[in-house]
Amino acid sequence: MKVIEIAFTVYPVTDMKRARQFYEATLGLREARFFGNENQGFVEYDVGAGTLAIGIGAPEWKPSRGGGCAALEVDDFEGAMSRLRGSGCKFTLEPMETPVCHMAIVSDPDGNSVMIHQRKAG
Fold this sequence. Notes:
The chain is α/β, with parallel strands linked by helices. The protein contains 2 helices and 8 strands. Strand 3 and strand 4 form a beta hairpin. The radius of gyration is 15 Å and the shape is globular. The protein starts with 8 loop residues before the first strand and ends with a strand.
């Protein structure tokens, strides 16, 4: 087997309307595709060359506060932090700086972790 790319990253959600409000209104993502309905379906958001999706309807597939984390690259880290704080997002990792980047982690309405990230130049 030869893996050639990551097809997409998907988070399970429990309330599609509430989740879409977070991903679209709070994070500013735009729906690329929608499959199914509000009770059993997927919404895909194209982000650069990748796709982030949210899904509902598989009873054994549940959100996880301690699970994986998608990192969204932003062009204005400080602006993103202001927007997220203004929306009342819960930060599970306060904004921090490393030698190569700035990052913070917020929770979506189901507790899934979403990292907001900006690489430093060079």
